[in-house]
Here is the input.
Amino acid sequence: MKVMKVLPFLSPLLLRPCLRRTWLSSALLRATALELIVLAGHVLLYPAGITSERRDPSHPSEPSPEPAGTPVLPVESPDRPPVVLLHGFIDNRSVFVLLRRSLARHGWHHLESLNYSPLTCDIRTAAELLGRHIEEICARTGHHEVDIVGHSLGGLIARYYVQRLGGDRRVRTLVTLGTPHGGTSVAPMASAHPIVRQMRSGSAPIEELRRPAPGCRTRFVSFWSELDQVIIPAEAACIDHPDLDAQNVRVSGIGHLALPVHPAVAAGIREALESPGATSGLASGTASVA
Here is the structure.
């Protein structure tokens, strides 16, 4: 496994203990305020994302046109595979409105936002459904592979598909945002929901993902934040598996809900989705969030 760290502007690990505690307290307050703003905006957008994405039959895989006056940047690689966006628990495709726009403006033409039901009770079942969606997308677009960006539970579903259901033959790169790869201990009361229990450390799906995965062809990039209050401990959002080509990208200053909407994270995602040889900025540890 290849591990890559992306340094924040000022890493608290470099500070003395007393200064580090002060930095973390201040940063947590700012991140919490940003989380509330993001939550308020998402509540407004949520109804628009409840229904499945409608596609123009003449251009079935292209994103909706940008508003008038929005600059569209030159297309750098017309052969980029489709990007599948997969939301988290009790969420929908509206969480990716800003990321989708960012990708479209930078030349990604094939963008697919998938919804899965909030009543989904099993990661394996959701991963099987994802596999059927991806087969349909490949057949419709003529591409043999896709890239996936998954937020939180969405990343875990996508990883299960890749690692346990043979999805590595279809998924070139899987980018996860605040995904509990090692399980999370947050919100014990929420464990009444079966899929929340499956996101806990030691659950059957989490343990299945620890099993050997020799020859897995998918490249993984995991973005995680030390201020993530949903993934506890925060490092559980890192991928630690000897058989996987995995890069763990550490960001600071934002929380769980801000990961799919922050412009600096979007820039890191765009870089991660480029061909492996084009990720010079990530590899040199220069990407960060304010």
In short: The chain is about 35% helix and 10% strand. The longest strand covers residues 171-177.
